[in-house]
Each structure stands twice: as C-alpha cells, then as structure tokens.
Amino acid sequence: MPELPPSLLSLDRPGSALSNSTGPIIDFAPDASCLDVEGLSLAYGGKPALRDLTLRVPRQRVTAFIGPSGCGKSTLLRALNRLHDLDETVSRQGSIRLEGQEIHAPEVAVDELRRRVGMVFQAPNPFPMSIYENVAFGLRLQGGMSRRRMNDIVEWALEAAALWGEVKDRLRASAWSLSIGQQQRLVIARTLAVRPEVLLLDEPASALDPISTLKIEELIRSLKSQLTLVLVTHNMQQAARVSDYTAFLHDGELVEYAPTASLFTNPRLARTENYITGRMA
Amino acid sequence: MSLAEVAGFRARLPRGEGPWAWLAAGSVALSLLMLGGLLTLIAVRGLGHFWPASVSLVELDDGQLLAGRAVRELPLATGQGRERLYFTGNRDIDGHVWQWVAVDRIVASEQPRELVVLERVRYGDFIGRLVDVRPAGSHVQGVGGGEVAWAALQARLAAVDALRDERDDLQRNVIQPLVRQLEKDPGDTAARRGLAVANDRIRGLQDAMQAEVVVLQSVDGRRLVLTLAEVLRAWRPNAMSLPEKMGAWVQGVWRFLSEGPRVANTAGGVWPAIFGTVLMVLLMSVLVTPFGVLAAVYLNEVAHQGHLTHWVRIAVRNLAGVPSIVYGVFGLGVFVYGIGGSIDEWFFSDQLPSPTFGTGGLLWASLTLALLTLPVVIVATEEGLARIPDHQREGALALGATRLEMLTRVVLPMAVPAMLTGVILAIARAAGEVAPLMLVGVAKLAPQVPVDGEFPFLHLDRKFMHLGYHVYDTAFHGDDIQAAMPMVYATALLLVLVVLVLNLTAIFLRHYLRARHGALSRH
C-alpha cells in the first residue's frame, strides 16, 4: 500500500477544536482528481436524495463514502456511472466530470461510460453462465477479440481478483456453483476484465463472511495501483482499514471529507464525531 | 410431485385437527380417481378394439346358426333373463352386423378353429368358413378347403399386399406429379407418354390382384366369392395362441397409427390426423412464441409502467378467457376471408373462383390458435421477466452493455424457462381445441398430409385432419355407431397421448435449459 503523499498529509490540522457548523468541510485539495462532482443535486420523483454536493475523487486512491442508511451514499455512487438513468423519476442538477469530461454531455455514450466506470454491487450478481463466460462477458460486448487474447485477459482478470488459483481447473463450471465470497471476487474480476478507470464498490463485503471480507479488502488495497476505487460502506472499521480518503454524508449532504486517518482520529465537525463514535445512527 | 413427496404427504396428514384436512385430502383423492377412471375407460375401450377376440359359433333353439364376437350382455327389458350382443359381420349378405340374442335361446356355443375373419375393403368384416382359393372366372377346383386353403390364402394375401403397395406408390409418386405437370403444360409429350406407361402398369397390377378369388361360406351355408383385391387381412382368432394374438394386437395398433382412414373414418387408421394435429401445434408454437415474447418484453422492460401499461396488462389477461369459438369466428372473417381472399386476388387470380388461401387451411388454423394462446405466452413470459432480479440487469449495464445487449445476453436467456412454461400451457390449450378449427381449416377427410416431396414441401393452404375433430366426426357422423365407438375411444386416447408427448418434450427442453442456465426459479 503506497504511502499518502506528504502534500495531503500536511493538510491535517491536529488539535483543532470541534465545530458545530453544518459543513461541509473539505479538508484537502487532491492534485490529481479523477472524478469531479460539482453542485450535484438528485431527486427521486421530487424527493431529494442528494443536495448540492461537491467533491473530488483522487486518482489511484481508495475513497470511502460513509454515513447512516438513506444518507445518499449509494445514490451518489450510482450517479457516478449514470445507473440512475434507468429510473425515469430521477431529476438531476449539477455536473460530474470524469477526467475533465462531463459525463452527462450528449456526446458521451452511456455504455462506454459504464465500461470506464465499473461497478460491483452489494450482493454478488454473477450471470447464470460459466465462470469463464462471466469474465469474458464485457469483452464479448466489445467484440473483435481473438480467442487467445480473450483467454489471456480472463486469466489476468481472475489473477487480479485473486481467484485464479481457486477456479483455474473449472472455468467451464457454472458461476453459481462458487461460494458467495468467490462469486463477489468473480464479479470484481468480470469488472476488471474490461479495464475500467474507476471501480465503484457498493458495500461489496456486506453479504460476506469475515474471511471473504478480508480477501476483498486485501484485493481493494492491491488494486489501487492500477485504478481509482470508490467504496461505499456501512462498516467504519472497513473504511478505516482500506480507504485513503473518507467522505461522511448525511441527509443527502456532504458533511466532511478528509484523509481517512484524520477523519477518524480527528474529526472537525461534531456531526462527524457523533457518527463515527456511534452516537448517531 | 415425486413419489417420496406423495408418501410424505400421507405421513403429514394431520391428526386431530378437525375435518378440514380430510375434506381437502378427499377432494384430491376424488380428482385423482376421476382422472384415473377417465384414462382407464378410454384406454381399455380404445386399446381393446385391436384385440383379435375369439369368435363363437352359436346355435339357437330354432336351429338358426350364427357366428360372431360377443360384445356385451345386458338384462332383458322384461326383467327375466339376459341378452347378448354379437358382432356378426357379413353386412353384404345379412344386411346387418349386430345381433342381439336372448341367452336362454342358445342351445350350443363353441369356438371352432376353422372360423375365419376377413377384413375387407368394403362391407366391413366377414365371419365364416374358408372353402377354396382358385383362379377367377373358372369353375375348376382350386387348392381345396381346410388347412391347405388357409396357408394358400395367407401366401396370396401377402403377394396382393405387395402389389397394392406398388400400385399406391405409382399413384402417388409417378401419376400425380405427371398429371399436375400436364395441367400446367398440356403439350408435354414426354409426360403424356410417361403417364400412359404408368397407367398400363397400374392396369396390369389391378389385373394381377384380381386374378384369383377366395370362396367363402357363412356358417348358415350362404356362399360368397371375393377377389383377393377386396381382402385386406384374414385371421383365425380361435386358432391363435396368446403370443400370436398379442402380435396381432401390436400390428393392429401400428396400423391404426400409421394408416389413413377408410369407410367414412369408421375403420383404418388415423395417421393423417396425428400428423395434422402435431404439425398444426408446432406451427402454432413457432408463430406464437416470438410474438408473445416480444410483447412481454415490451410490457415488462420497455414500456413506461403507467396506467396505460396496467390496463393493457389486464386486457391481455382477460383475452385468455375469451371462448375459443369467438377466435374461430375472428379467424374466419379476418384470416380466411380477409387476408386469404386478398392473397388469392393478388397471387392466385388465375385459379379463381376456386380459392387457394381464401378457404380454411393449415396456416389459418395455426394463426387462429396462435392468437388464442398469445395471452398465455405473454403472461408466463412477463412473470418470468419480473422474477429476474434487477441486480442482474444492472450488472450487465455496469459492464458497458446497452439495453439491447442486456436483454439478449442476460435477461432473455434467464427467462427462457418461463417462456417455455408459456409455450407448454399454449400447447396444452391448443392441441385440444376443436371448435375454432371447424371454422378455419380442419377437414373430415384429408388423407394427403400437408407435407410432401413437392415444392414448397409444406403446403400451408391445404386442409388437414385433426384428432379432436376426428373424435367428434367419428362419434356423430358415422352411420354405424357401434363400429365407430371403439375408434372414438382409441382416437381420444391418442389425442391425450399426443398432448402428453408434446408437453413432455417442452418440459424436458425447459429442464435442460434450466440446468444449463442455473436454477434461478425455485420450483
């Protein structure tokens, strides 16, 4: 796990007093941002879910979104690859830029965007196909790939997801024959196979046993040398273990966003501290 | 339900919980009993028809002799004694084939070995004695009677059978194509010559078949001379051993399945009806599946889930309840007269006023039934689509799939078992429908099946036979109901079996696909 850059660490201001202001407090300015969310508001059928949210996600780091249920963290995650497009009742203001490019621009093809911004869901959702076909699914969508190259990429993706050793002898078996933990790593391998720039993880370990959870967390840490990861989690220990930066959301608003170590050890706002110390559900 | 589950059901029957459980169990038992009774009745009555039953020689108290097969026995209307019904055959010399005899009047009844039964081209069965087999048109003594004549008859009948097959083959494969060719081009001299040669050959075959006659005598002494061409089969039921009878039974069943009908559908087989039923159902499935699946995909995946979609869904479900004859009327008006009439005007105007597509036929019947079963397929597919979890759809989208790719690669393959459930229900409904077919293309007699070696091989404009209609027609439109009843039972049994086979095929297919695509639906 690479060290945090000193420029970011220097932003820590240990010892400052807790503020009762509502925020948001954004405690760093990453020099290399991958995703820029600006003034994002989102409503489901007139019911607001995100309010005027602005944050930047640094490249090749793990950023965690934490907050109580219904705070909008999953909504924000799904907005990042426009999965909320499926719901006709969603209305949106504000912008999201991926590497400087507005993702809602008319010239952006949504399927291409979703290939670049991959997503792993809470419950493992392998397709009812073989293990191999699951990983090759996204590659087949792109088409025009030789059999040999596809085999190589499938192997690479399974290696990257730390699953190759367990499944290399039964690639033709049904993906549904794997254990839940293996299925979740398979889903990650499937997403990695299309070489995304960003990987969104929506509570990826909440359905898993502790050992599988540990494996997924190791995996997340090992992946950040190659891509940008955004993690939504209920589990604050998990956020503290794997993420470099943490954003605390509450009620559709960004409350505090800081390097993980500083947010957990030295929160700036009373609301944040209440949440991480368990005084607020 | 597996056997273990049935046993488990018995074991779980609750005690001391009042009568409701017994009431429910009783209902199930009663339903099963009625179903079993129904199947047993049609199986016994239908399959018994092919058994070569023994023939009795009966002497009555007034010295009258009769030979026949005892069919059933009832108490006399006077309340004293019983009477017995014999099937005596010999319609041409007696004028009837059934005879009721009071049991008291029977002086002697025996089953002599030498009694023969002949199945004939006309007048049904003959029951009596074999006297001689000799060349036609002479009065010279032939081979004589007894075992020698019986052996000779068997040999000659086999020869005549071969000749008959050759004649039918010529008729079907040489004469009919040549005649059609001459209709198109009357100046074709090669065809004309070929036709003359074939006709000569057929005349030769006919003569050969009529070259010998069989001399018969009824038990009361009347003589009958038949050419061998008029005899289809001969057997001596009283001389047959049990294995021989079983062999004859299997042959009888096979002939019933493989041959065309004779004597106004009261004899012969039902092959064209089996073929017509299966072909019509398969065509119906091919037509209804894509329409139903596309409609369900639109309703469940594409359409905005608003009030309009809600009402369309209710309307589709209600369409399933419209009586089938109404669909028949619709098919007649729209498909046959409307579309069929227009096709005739545009493409077959040279054959008008005799209609090509403007009359009932295989295509219109299949389309009508496809319309009838469309709601079933839509509803079943929609339920299957609704059962697929959204995270499967999102998983595909998150990998960069378009909505079309998501549908074709993930959602539809997972919904295939549900679609097949819809098709199974559609087949079960369509294979048994008779009412709409009577309006849009079923025929009482269409011995030519709608598939043959002539372009375009599948003749969608032809009328066809159907087992369900065959049952109706045989039961009500024959003039000899006693002879027709066994055929009705046998055909009804066959209809049940055909539906069963079609359903099982679809169920096995569904099982196979489910195993391949993983067990999503937990049935």
UniProtKB/TrEMBL annotation, chain A:
<dbReference type="Pfam" id="PF00005">
    <property type="entry name" value="ABC_tran"/>
</dbReference>
<dbReference type="InterPro" id="IPR003439">
    <property type="entry name" value="ABC_transporter-like_ATP-bd"/>
</dbReference>
<keyword id="KW-0997">Cell inner membrane</keyword>
<dbReference type="GO" id="GO:0016887">
    <property type="term" value="F:ATP hydrolysis activity"/>
</dbReference>
<feature type="domain" description="ABC transporter">
    <location>
        <begin position="35"/>
        <end position="276"/>
    </location>
</feature>
<dbReference type="GO" id="GO:0005315">
    <property type="term" value="F:phosphate transmembrane transporter activity"/>
</dbReference>
<dbReference type="InterPro" id="IPR005670">
    <property type="entry name" value="PstB-like"/>
</dbReference>
<dbReference type="InterPro" id="IPR003593">
    <property type="entry name" value="AAA+_ATPase"/>
</dbReference>
<dbReference type="GO" id="GO:0016020">
    <property type="term" value="C:membrane"/>
</dbReference>
<keyword id="KW-0067">ATP-binding</keyword>
<keyword id="KW-1278">Translocase</keyword>
<protein>
    <submittedName>
        <fullName>Phosphate ABC transporter ATP-binding protein</fullName>
    </submittedName>
</protein>
<keyword id="KW-0592">Phosphate transport</keyword>
<dbReference type="GO" id="GO:0035435">
    <property type="term" value="P:phosphate ion transmembrane transport"/>
</dbReference>
<keyword id="KW-0472">Membrane</keyword>
<dbReference type="GO" id="GO:0005524">
    <property type="term" value="F:ATP binding"/>
</dbReference>
<keyword id="KW-0813">Transport</keyword>
<keyword id="KW-0547">Nucleotide-binding</keyword>
<dbReference type="InterPro" id="IPR027417">
    <property type="entry name" value="P-loop_NTPase"/>
</dbReference>
<keyword id="KW-1003">Cell membrane</keyword>
